[in-house]
Task: inverse folding
Protein backbone atom coordinates (compact mmCIF):
# COMPACT_ATOMS: atom_id res chain seq x y z
CA UNK A 1 0.00 0.00 0.00
CA UNK A 2 1.46 3.34 -1.08
CA UNK A 3 1.40 6.63 0.78
CA UNK A 4 -1.61 7.89 -1.18
CA UNK A 5 -3.57 4.68 -0.35
CA UNK A 6 -2.83 4.99 3.37
CA UNK A 7 -3.68 8.66 3.20
CA UNK A 8 -7.07 7.99 1.59
CA UNK A 9 -7.92 5.10 3.93
CA UNK A 10 -7.27 7.19 7.04
CA UNK A 11 -9.30 10.05 5.62
CA UNK A 12 -12.25 7.71 4.91
CA UNK A 13 -12.08 6.44 8.51
CA UNK A 14 -12.13 10.00 9.78
CA UNK A 15 -15.18 10.83 7.66
CA UNK A 16 -17.01 7.68 8.82
CA UNK A 17 -16.31 8.60 12.43
CA UNK A 18 -17.79 12.06 11.88
CA UNK A 19 -20.98 10.53 10.39
CA UNK A 20 -21.32 8.04 13.22
CA UNK A 21 -20.80 10.73 15.85
CA UNK A 22 -23.52 12.90 14.31
CA UNK A 23 -26.07 10.01 14.50
CA UNK A 24 -25.63 9.40 18.24
CA UNK A 25 -28.44 11.78 19.48
CA UNK A 26 -30.97 10.13 17.15
CA UNK A 27 -29.98 6.67 18.32
CA UNK A 28 -30.28 7.71 21.99
CA UNK A 29 -33.86 9.00 21.50
CA UNK A 30 -34.88 5.73 19.86
CA UNK A 31 -33.49 3.75 22.73
CA UNK A 32 -35.74 5.54 25.25
CA UNK A 33 -38.89 4.51 23.36
CA UNK A 34 -38.29 0.77 23.08
CA UNK A 35 -38.82 -1.91 25.71
CA UNK A 36 -35.97 -3.37 27.66
CA UNK A 37 -35.97 -6.56 25.58
CA UNK A 38 -36.13 -4.58 22.38
CA UNK A 39 -33.36 -2.37 23.71
CA UNK A 40 -30.93 -5.28 23.80
CA UNK A 41 -31.75 -6.27 20.21
CA UNK A 42 -31.51 -2.67 19.06
CA UNK A 43 -28.15 -2.22 20.71
CA UNK A 44 -26.74 -5.17 18.80
CA UNK A 45 -27.94 -3.75 15.48
CA UNK A 46 -26.67 -0.19 16.03
CA UNK A 47 -23.35 -1.08 17.62
CA UNK A 48 -20.81 1.53 16.52
CA UNK A 49 -17.42 0.18 15.39
CA UNK A 50 -14.49 1.51 17.37
CA UNK A 51 -12.32 3.98 15.43
CA UNK A 52 -8.65 3.04 15.37
CA UNK A 53 -7.22 5.68 13.04
CA UNK A 54 -5.81 9.08 14.03
CA UNK A 55 -8.05 12.09 14.31
CA UNK A 56 -6.22 15.13 12.95
CA UNK A 57 -7.23 18.78 12.48
CA UNK A 58 -7.82 19.92 8.92
CA UNK A 59 -4.67 22.06 8.82
CA UNK A 60 -2.57 18.98 9.61
CA UNK A 61 -4.19 17.14 6.69
CA UNK A 62 -3.31 20.12 4.49
CA UNK A 63 0.32 19.84 5.54
CA UNK A 64 0.35 16.10 4.85
CA UNK A 65 -1.29 16.71 1.48
CA UNK A 66 1.42 19.23 0.65
CA UNK A 67 4.08 16.56 1.21
CA UNK A 68 2.55 14.13 -1.28
CA UNK A 69 4.08 13.84 -4.77
CA UNK A 70 2.25 16.00 -7.28
CA UNK A 71 0.43 13.12 -9.02
CA UNK A 72 -0.77 11.62 -5.73
CA UNK A 73 -1.88 15.01 -4.45
CA UNK A 74 -3.89 15.64 -7.62
CA UNK A 75 -5.45 12.17 -7.41
CA UNK A 76 -6.49 12.80 -3.81
CA UNK A 77 -8.05 16.11 -4.82
CA UNK A 78 -10.17 14.35 -7.44
CA UNK A 79 -11.85 11.98 -4.95
CA UNK A 80 -12.35 14.22 -1.92
CA UNK A 81 -13.80 17.69 -1.48
CA UNK A 82 -11.60 18.17 1.59
CA UNK A 83 -8.50 17.30 -0.38
CA UNK A 84 -9.63 19.50 -3.24
CA UNK A 85 -9.54 22.43 -0.82
CA UNK A 86 -6.03 21.41 0.17
CA UNK A 87 -5.07 21.14 -3.49
CA UNK A 88 -6.31 24.65 -4.18
CA UNK A 89 -3.92 25.93 -1.52
CA UNK A 90 -1.00 23.57 -2.20
CA UNK A 91 2.15 25.57 -1.35
CA UNK A 92 4.67 23.74 -3.54
CA UNK A 93 3.99 23.42 -7.26
CA UNK A 94 6.66 21.64 -9.32
CA UNK A 95 5.41 21.13 -12.86
CA UNK A 96 7.64 19.16 -15.22
CA UNK A 97 7.36 16.17 -17.51
CA UNK A 98 8.77 14.02 -14.71
CA UNK A 99 6.43 15.18 -11.94
CA UNK A 100 3.44 14.90 -14.27
CA UNK A 101 4.35 11.36 -15.26
CA UNK A 102 5.09 12.22 -18.90
CA UNK A 103 7.87 10.50 -20.76
CA UNK A 104 10.16 13.00 -22.42
CA UNK A 105 9.06 13.51 -26.04
CA UNK A 106 6.57 10.65 -25.73
CA UNK A 107 4.33 12.28 -28.34
CA UNK A 108 7.01 14.31 -30.03
CA UNK A 109 7.33 18.03 -30.70
CA UNK A 110 4.21 20.19 -30.81
CA UNK A 111 1.86 17.40 -29.69
CA UNK A 112 3.88 16.87 -26.52
CA UNK A 113 3.78 20.61 -25.84
CA UNK A 114 -0.03 20.68 -26.28
CA UNK A 115 -0.47 17.72 -23.94
CA UNK A 116 1.83 19.26 -21.32
CA UNK A 117 -0.01 22.57 -21.65
CA UNK A 118 -3.41 20.91 -21.21
CA UNK A 119 -2.37 19.18 -17.98
CA UNK A 120 -0.70 22.23 -16.46
CA UNK A 121 -3.61 24.43 -17.50
CA UNK A 122 -6.03 22.16 -15.67
CA UNK A 123 -3.87 22.16 -12.55
CA UNK A 124 -3.39 25.91 -12.41
CA UNK A 125 -7.08 26.73 -13.04
CA UNK A 126 -8.02 24.66 -9.99
CA UNK A 127 -5.45 26.36 -7.80
CA UNK A 128 -6.48 29.53 -5.98
CA UNK A 129 -2.97 30.98 -6.00
CA UNK A 130 -3.25 31.41 -2.24
CA UNK A 131 -0.40 30.09 -0.14
CA UNK A 132 2.04 29.26 -2.97
CA UNK A 133 5.59 29.17 -1.58
CA UNK A 134 7.47 27.61 -4.49
CA UNK A 135 6.56 27.48 -8.17
CA UNK A 136 8.71 25.51 -10.59
CA UNK A 137 7.91 25.10 -14.28
CA UNK A 138 10.39 23.04 -16.29
CA UNK A 139 9.78 21.94 -19.85
CA UNK A 140 12.33 20.69 -22.39
CA UNK A 141 10.11 20.16 -25.44
CA UNK A 142 8.97 22.57 -28.10
CA UNK A 143 7.77 26.10 -27.39
CA UNK A 144 4.76 26.77 -25.14
CA UNK A 145 2.48 29.67 -26.06
CA UNK A 146 3.21 32.86 -24.14
CA UNK A 147 -0.47 33.35 -23.24
CA UNK A 148 -0.48 30.08 -21.26
CA UNK A 149 2.75 30.97 -19.47
CA UNK A 150 1.34 34.38 -18.57
CA UNK A 151 -1.83 32.82 -17.15
CA UNK A 152 0.11 30.33 -15.02
CA UNK A 153 2.49 32.96 -13.68
CA UNK A 154 -0.36 35.32 -12.89
CA UNK A 155 -1.85 32.64 -10.63
CA UNK A 156 1.44 31.60 -9.04
CA UNK A 157 3.14 34.96 -8.45
CA UNK A 158 1.32 36.19 -5.37
CA UNK A 159 2.42 37.71 -2.06
CA UNK A 160 4.17 34.99 -0.07
CA UNK A 161 5.89 33.30 -3.04
CA UNK A 162 9.49 32.49 -2.02
CA UNK A 163 10.94 30.52 -4.92
CA UNK A 164 10.25 30.94 -8.64
CA UNK A 165 11.89 28.66 -11.22
CA UNK A 166 11.04 29.00 -14.91
CA UNK A 167 13.04 26.76 -17.26
CA UNK A 168 11.99 26.86 -20.90
CA UNK A 169 13.43 25.05 -23.94
CA UNK A 170 16.04 26.84 -26.08
CA UNK A 171 14.58 28.65 -29.07
CA UNK A 172 15.89 31.24 -31.56
CA UNK A 173 16.63 34.49 -29.75
CA UNK A 174 13.86 36.37 -31.53
CA UNK A 175 11.31 33.92 -30.09
CA UNK A 176 12.36 34.16 -26.43
CA UNK A 177 9.46 34.34 -24.00
CA UNK A 178 9.20 37.79 -22.47
CA UNK A 179 8.85 37.32 -18.72
CA UNK A 180 5.95 39.54 -17.47
CA UNK A 181 7.88 41.71 -15.03
CA UNK A 182 4.77 43.74 -14.02
CA UNK A 183 3.62 40.59 -12.19
CA UNK A 184 6.45 41.26 -9.71
CA UNK A 185 5.20 44.75 -8.82
CA UNK A 186 2.72 45.92 -6.16
CA UNK A 187 4.12 43.61 -3.51
CA UNK A 188 3.61 40.38 -5.46
CA UNK A 189 7.34 39.73 -5.84
CA UNK A 190 8.50 41.19 -2.54
CA UNK A 191 8.78 37.81 -0.82
CA UNK A 192 10.77 36.02 -3.56
CA UNK A 193 14.06 34.67 -2.18
CA UNK A 194 15.18 32.52 -5.10
CA UNK A 195 14.66 33.49 -8.75
CA UNK A 196 15.85 31.04 -11.41
CA UNK A 197 15.17 31.79 -15.10
CA UNK A 198 16.26 29.86 -18.20
CA UNK A 199 15.80 30.77 -21.87
CA UNK A 200 13.64 33.88 -21.66
CA UNK A 201 13.83 37.67 -21.85
CA UNK A 202 13.83 39.46 -18.52
CA UNK A 203 13.50 43.23 -18.22
CA UNK A 204 13.04 44.02 -14.50
CA UNK A 205 11.44 47.30 -13.50
CA UNK A 206 12.57 47.30 -9.87
CA UNK A 207 14.52 45.31 -7.30
CA UNK A 208 13.27 42.44 -5.16
CA UNK A 209 13.79 43.26 -1.50
CA UNK A 210 13.99 39.65 -0.22
CA UNK A 211 15.94 38.18 -3.13
CA UNK A 212 18.88 36.05 -1.95
CA UNK A 213 19.67 33.88 -5.00
CA UNK A 214 19.50 34.94 -8.65
CA UNK A 215 20.29 32.46 -11.41
CA UNK A 216 20.00 33.52 -15.06
CA UNK A 217 20.81 31.05 -17.84
CA UNK A 218 20.49 32.13 -21.48
CA UNK A 219 18.46 35.13 -20.41
CA UNK A 220 18.15 38.33 -22.42
CA UNK A 221 18.93 41.09 -19.94
CA UNK A 222 21.13 44.15 -20.39
CA UNK A 223 23.69 45.42 -17.92
CA UNK A 224 21.52 48.43 -17.07
CA UNK A 225 18.47 46.23 -16.44
CA UNK A 226 20.49 43.94 -14.21
CA UNK A 227 21.83 46.94 -12.32
CA UNK A 228 18.24 48.13 -11.80
CA UNK A 229 17.37 44.77 -10.27
CA UNK A 230 20.49 44.54 -8.11
CA UNK A 231 20.35 48.12 -6.87
CA UNK A 232 17.35 47.32 -4.65
CA UNK A 233 18.09 43.67 -3.86
CA UNK A 234 20.12 44.45 -0.76
CA UNK A 235 20.13 40.95 0.76
CA UNK A 236 21.31 39.13 -2.39
CA UNK A 237 23.85 36.43 -1.50
CA UNK A 238 24.40 34.49 -4.72
CA UNK A 239 24.46 35.67 -8.35
CA UNK A 240 24.84 33.24 -11.28
CA UNK A 241 25.01 34.51 -14.87
CA UNK A 242 25.50 31.95 -17.65
CA UNK A 243 25.24 32.57 -21.40
CA UNK A 244 23.68 35.98 -20.87
CA UNK A 245 24.87 37.67 -24.06
CA UNK A 246 23.30 41.10 -23.71
CA UNK A 247 25.48 42.26 -20.80
CA UNK A 248 28.45 44.46 -21.71
CA UNK A 249 29.25 45.90 -18.30
CA UNK A 250 28.44 44.01 -15.10
CA UNK A 251 28.15 46.43 -12.18
CA UNK A 252 28.08 44.93 -8.71
CA UNK A 253 27.31 47.74 -6.29
CA UNK A 254 28.79 48.34 -2.85
CA UNK A 255 25.24 48.19 -1.44
CA UNK A 256 25.28 44.41 -1.93
CA UNK A 257 26.93 43.73 1.40
CA UNK A 258 25.50 40.21 1.67
CA UNK A 259 26.75 39.06 -1.76
CA UNK A 260 29.38 36.37 -1.24
CA UNK A 261 29.13 34.15 -4.35
CA UNK A 262 29.42 35.11 -8.04
CA UNK A 263 29.39 32.86 -11.11
CA UNK A 264 29.91 34.29 -14.59
CA UNK A 265 30.23 31.85 -17.50
CA UNK A 266 30.17 32.24 -21.28
CA UNK A 267 28.74 35.76 -21.35
CA UNK A 268 30.12 36.52 -24.80
CA UNK A 269 29.60 40.30 -24.92
CA UNK A 270 30.87 41.07 -21.42
CA UNK A 271 33.77 43.52 -21.47
CA UNK A 272 34.21 44.61 -17.87
CA UNK A 273 33.20 43.60 -14.34
CA UNK A 274 32.94 46.48 -11.88
CA UNK A 275 32.83 44.76 -8.53
CA UNK A 276 32.38 46.85 -5.39
CA UNK A 277 30.65 44.27 -3.20
CA UNK A 278 32.64 44.33 0.04
CA UNK A 279 32.15 40.68 1.04
CA UNK A 280 32.36 38.80 -2.25
CA UNK A 281 34.51 35.81 -1.28
CA UNK A 282 33.71 33.09 -3.86
CA UNK A 283 34.08 33.62 -7.61
CA UNK A 284 33.50 31.11 -10.42
CA UNK A 285 34.39 32.53 -13.80
CA UNK A 286 35.35 31.13 -17.19
CA UNK A 287 38.84 31.48 -18.60
CA UNK A 288 37.90 34.07 -21.21
CA UNK A 289 36.50 36.43 -18.57
CA UNK A 290 39.15 36.05 -15.86
CA UNK A 291 41.41 38.36 -17.85
CA UNK A 292 38.84 41.18 -17.80
CA UNK A 293 39.06 44.10 -15.36
CA UNK A 294 37.32 42.93 -12.19
CA UNK A 295 37.22 45.75 -9.68
CA UNK A 296 37.71 45.08 -5.97
CA UNK A 297 39.15 41.59 -5.56
CA UNK A 298 41.23 41.65 -2.38
CA UNK A 299 38.41 39.99 -0.42
CA UNK A 300 38.11 36.99 -2.81
CA UNK A 301 39.15 33.77 -1.03
CA UNK A 302 37.83 31.02 -3.32
CA UNK A 303 38.37 31.19 -7.08
CA UNK A 304 37.43 28.65 -9.75
CA UNK A 305 38.48 29.32 -13.33
CA UNK A 306 36.02 27.29 -15.37
CA UNK A 307 36.97 25.43 -18.52
CA UNK A 308 36.73 27.41 -21.74
CA UNK A 309 38.50 27.60 -25.08
CA UNK A 310 41.22 29.80 -23.57
CA UNK A 311 44.76 28.46 -23.38
CA UNK A 312 47.64 29.09 -20.95
CA UNK A 313 45.35 29.72 -17.99
CA UNK A 314 47.79 28.13 -15.55
CA UNK A 315 50.51 30.44 -16.83
CA UNK A 316 48.18 33.43 -16.48
CA UNK A 317 47.18 32.45 -12.94
CA UNK A 318 50.81 32.25 -11.89
CA UNK A 319 51.82 35.51 -13.53
CA UNK A 320 48.83 37.70 -12.55
CA UNK A 321 46.67 36.32 -9.74
CA UNK A 322 49.14 36.76 -6.84
CA UNK A 323 48.92 40.52 -7.44
CA UNK A 324 45.18 40.69 -8.25
CA UNK A 325 43.80 38.23 -5.67
CA UNK A 326 46.55 37.78 -3.07
CA UNK A 327 44.24 36.46 -0.33
CA UNK A 328 43.05 33.31 -2.10
CA UNK A 329 42.60 30.23 0.08
CA UNK A 330 41.36 27.80 -2.60
CA UNK A 331 42.12 27.93 -6.32
CA UNK A 332 40.85 25.64 -9.09
CA UNK A 333 41.99 26.07 -12.70
CA UNK A 334 40.75 24.26 -15.82
CA UNK A 335 42.77 24.65 -19.02
CA UNK A 336 42.47 22.97 -22.40
CA UNK A 337 45.96 23.90 -23.56
CA UNK A 338 49.24 25.04 -21.99
CA UNK A 339 51.86 26.02 -24.52
CA UNK A 340 53.85 28.07 -22.00
CA UNK A 341 55.42 26.37 -19.01
CA UNK A 342 54.61 27.52 -15.50
CA UNK A 343 56.81 30.54 -14.71
CA UNK A 344 58.48 31.68 -11.52
CA UNK A 345 55.74 33.61 -9.74
CA UNK A 346 56.20 37.36 -9.11
CA UNK A 347 54.68 37.06 -5.63
CA UNK A 348 53.45 34.36 -3.28
CA UNK A 349 49.97 33.07 -2.43
CA UNK A 350 50.50 33.37 1.31
CA UNK A 351 47.02 32.11 2.25
CA UNK A 352 46.41 29.40 -0.37
CA UNK A 353 45.49 26.03 1.20
CA UNK A 354 44.03 24.06 -1.72
CA UNK A 355 45.17 24.04 -5.36
CA UNK A 356 43.46 22.01 -8.09
CA UNK A 357 44.67 22.08 -11.69
CA UNK A 358 42.71 20.31 -14.44
CA UNK A 359 44.41 19.96 -17.80
CA UNK A 360 42.64 18.20 -20.60
CA UNK A 361 41.30 17.82 -24.09
CA UNK A 362 38.37 15.71 -25.23
CA UNK A 363 40.33 14.26 -28.14
CA UNK A 364 44.04 13.68 -28.69
CA UNK A 365 47.04 14.41 -26.45
CA UNK A 366 47.44 17.28 -24.02
CA UNK A 367 50.13 19.79 -25.11
CA UNK A 368 53.16 17.49 -25.57
CA UNK A 369 55.50 20.46 -25.10
CA UNK A 370 54.16 21.31 -21.65
CA UNK A 371 56.54 20.54 -18.81
CA UNK A 372 54.63 19.15 -15.81
CA UNK A 373 57.78 19.59 -13.71
CA UNK A 374 57.45 23.38 -14.09
CA UNK A 375 54.50 23.20 -11.66
CA UNK A 376 57.15 23.08 -8.92
CA UNK A 377 57.34 26.87 -9.25
CA UNK A 378 53.61 27.12 -8.53
CA UNK A 379 53.95 24.92 -5.42
CA UNK A 380 56.93 26.96 -4.28
CA UNK A 381 54.84 30.14 -4.35
CA UNK A 382 52.27 28.61 -1.94
CA UNK A 383 54.08 28.20 1.40
CA UNK A 384 50.87 27.28 3.26
CA UNK A 385 49.52 24.84 0.64
CA UNK A 386 48.06 21.67 2.16
CA UNK A 387 46.23 19.94 -0.74
CA UNK A 388 47.39 19.67 -4.34
CA UNK A 389 45.33 17.94 -7.05
CA UNK A 390 46.45 17.55 -10.66
CA UNK A 391 44.07 16.00 -13.21
CA UNK A 392 45.07 15.32 -16.83
CA UNK A 393 42.50 14.23 -19.42
CA UNK A 394 43.71 13.02 -22.82
CA UNK A 395 43.00 10.22 -25.25
CA UNK A 396 46.65 9.80 -26.30
CA UNK A 397 49.92 10.49 -24.51
CA UNK A 398 52.55 12.21 -26.64
CA UNK A 399 54.93 13.41 -23.91
CA UNK A 400 58.35 11.83 -23.76
CA UNK A 401 58.07 8.68 -21.64
CA UNK A 402 60.55 8.06 -18.86
CA UNK A 403 63.31 5.53 -19.37
CA UNK A 404 66.68 4.64 -17.92
CA UNK A 405 67.66 4.98 -14.26
CA UNK A 406 66.89 7.63 -11.66
CA UNK A 407 70.14 9.49 -12.21
CA UNK A 408 68.66 11.32 -15.17
CA UNK A 409 65.77 12.87 -13.20
CA UNK A 410 65.78 16.63 -12.64
CA UNK A 411 66.02 17.80 -9.04
CA UNK A 412 65.26 21.04 -7.18
CA UNK A 413 66.57 20.32 -3.68
CA UNK A 414 66.46 23.99 -2.70
CA UNK A 415 62.66 24.11 -2.95
CA UNK A 416 60.69 22.72 0.01
CA UNK A 417 56.93 22.40 0.58
CA UNK A 418 56.58 21.95 4.30
CA UNK A 419 52.77 22.18 4.53
CA UNK A 420 51.63 19.83 1.77
CA UNK A 421 50.01 16.72 3.28
CA UNK A 422 47.66 15.48 0.56
CA UNK A 423 48.52 15.05 -3.13
CA UNK A 424 46.41 13.42 -5.84
CA UNK A 425 47.36 13.01 -9.50
CA UNK A 426 44.51 11.77 -11.71
CA UNK A 427 45.45 10.55 -15.16
CA UNK A 428 49.00 9.79 -14.05
CA UNK A 429 51.07 8.75 -17.07
CA UNK A 430 54.61 7.69 -17.91
CA UNK A 431 55.64 11.19 -19.04
CA UNK A 432 59.14 11.89 -17.74
CA UNK A 433 58.19 15.37 -16.50
CA UNK A 434 55.20 13.98 -14.53
CA UNK A 435 57.36 11.33 -12.86
CA UNK A 436 59.89 14.04 -12.01
CA UNK A 437 57.17 16.20 -10.46
CA UNK A 438 55.97 13.29 -8.32
CA UNK A 439 59.48 12.41 -7.17
CA UNK A 440 60.14 16.04 -6.30
CA UNK A 441 57.01 16.15 -4.12
CA UNK A 442 58.12 12.99 -2.28
CA UNK A 443 61.54 14.51 -1.65
CA UNK A 444 60.45 18.01 -0.64
CA UNK A 445 57.00 17.67 1.01
CA UNK A 446 58.10 16.86 4.55
CA UNK A 447 54.53 16.74 5.89
CA UNK A 448 53.11 14.53 3.16
CA UNK A 449 50.65 11.94 4.46
CA UNK A 450 48.64 10.76 1.42
CA UNK A 451 49.73 10.34 -2.19
CA UNK A 452 47.18 9.05 -4.73
CA UNK A 453 48.26 8.14 -8.25
CA UNK A 454 45.33 7.26 -10.54
CA UNK A 455 46.42 5.88 -13.89
CA UNK A 456 42.96 6.42 -15.43
CA UNK A 457 40.95 9.63 -15.74
CA UNK A 458 37.33 8.46 -15.45
CA UNK A 459 35.42 10.95 -13.34
CA UNK A 460 37.20 10.55 -10.03
CA UNK A 461 35.67 7.51 -8.30
CA UNK A 462 37.07 7.45 -4.79
CA UNK A 463 37.25 3.68 -4.37
CA UNK A 464 40.71 2.13 -4.79
CA UNK A 465 39.14 -0.94 -6.42
CA UNK A 466 37.33 0.16 -9.57
CA UNK A 467 35.22 -3.00 -9.50
CA UNK A 468 33.40 -1.42 -6.55
CA UNK A 469 31.72 1.07 -8.88
CA UNK A 470 29.83 -1.79 -10.54
CA UNK A 471 27.51 -1.76 -7.55
CA UNK A 472 26.19 1.60 -8.80
CA UNK A 473 27.04 1.55 -12.50
CA UNK A 474 29.92 1.00 -14.88
CA UNK A 475 33.37 2.46 -15.39
CA UNK A 476 33.72 5.31 -17.84
CA UNK A 477 34.82 4.11 -21.30
CA UNK A 478 38.55 4.49 -21.90
CA UNK A 479 40.26 4.16 -25.29
CA UNK A 480 42.81 1.40 -25.83
CA UNK A 481 45.67 3.91 -26.16
CA UNK A 482 45.16 5.19 -22.61
CA UNK A 483 44.67 1.66 -21.25
CA UNK A 484 48.05 0.74 -22.71
CA UNK A 485 49.48 3.97 -21.31
CA UNK A 486 48.10 3.09 -17.87
CA UNK A 487 50.14 -0.13 -17.95
CA UNK A 488 53.26 1.91 -18.74
CA UNK A 489 52.41 4.31 -15.90
CA UNK A 490 52.16 1.39 -13.44
CA UNK A 491 55.64 0.22 -14.47
CA UNK A 492 56.98 3.75 -13.97
CA UNK A 493 55.39 3.93 -10.51
CA UNK A 494 56.97 0.63 -9.47
CA UNK A 495 60.41 1.62 -10.74
CA UNK A 496 60.69 5.33 -9.89
CA UNK A 497 58.02 6.23 -7.33
CA UNK A 498 57.63 3.34 -4.91
CA UNK A 499 61.32 3.25 -3.84
CA UNK A 500 61.09 6.94 -2.85
CA UNK A 501 57.93 6.70 -0.70
CA UNK A 502 58.75 7.32 2.99
CA UNK A 503 57.18 5.04 5.59
CA UNK A 504 54.96 7.87 6.88
CA UNK A 505 53.26 8.29 3.47
CA UNK A 506 50.18 6.30 2.45
CA UNK A 507 50.55 5.51 -1.26
CA UNK A 508 47.29 4.76 -3.06
CA UNK A 509 47.72 3.42 -6.61
CA UNK A 510 44.53 3.17 -8.67
CA UNK A 511 44.73 0.74 -11.55
CA UNK A 512 42.47 0.23 -14.58
CA UNK A 513 39.34 -1.86 -14.02
CA UNK A 514 40.05 -5.53 -14.74
CA UNK A 515 36.55 -5.89 -16.18
CA UNK A 516 35.95 -2.70 -18.19
CA UNK A 517 39.50 -1.68 -19.12
CA UNK A 518 40.85 -5.01 -20.31
CA UNK A 519 42.28 -5.09 -23.83
Result:
Amino acid sequence: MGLIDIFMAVKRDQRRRQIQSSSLPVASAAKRKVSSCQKDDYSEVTKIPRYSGPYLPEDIWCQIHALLPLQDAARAGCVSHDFLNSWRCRPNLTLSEKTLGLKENAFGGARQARYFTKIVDGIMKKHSGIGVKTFTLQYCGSCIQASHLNNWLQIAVTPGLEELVLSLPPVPQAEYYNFPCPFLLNGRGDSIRNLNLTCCAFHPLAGLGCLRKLHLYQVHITGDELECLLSNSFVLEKLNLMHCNKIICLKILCLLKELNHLTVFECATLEVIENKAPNLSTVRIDGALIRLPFGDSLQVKDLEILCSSESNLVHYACAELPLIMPNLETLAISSVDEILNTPVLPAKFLHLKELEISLGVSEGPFSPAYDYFSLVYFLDACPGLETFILAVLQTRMKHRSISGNCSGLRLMPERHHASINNVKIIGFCSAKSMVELTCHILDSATSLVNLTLDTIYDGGYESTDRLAVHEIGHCSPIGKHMIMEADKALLAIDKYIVPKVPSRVNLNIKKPCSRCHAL
User: Anything to note?
Assistant: The two ends are 49 Å apart (CA to CA). The chain is about 30% helix and 20% strand.
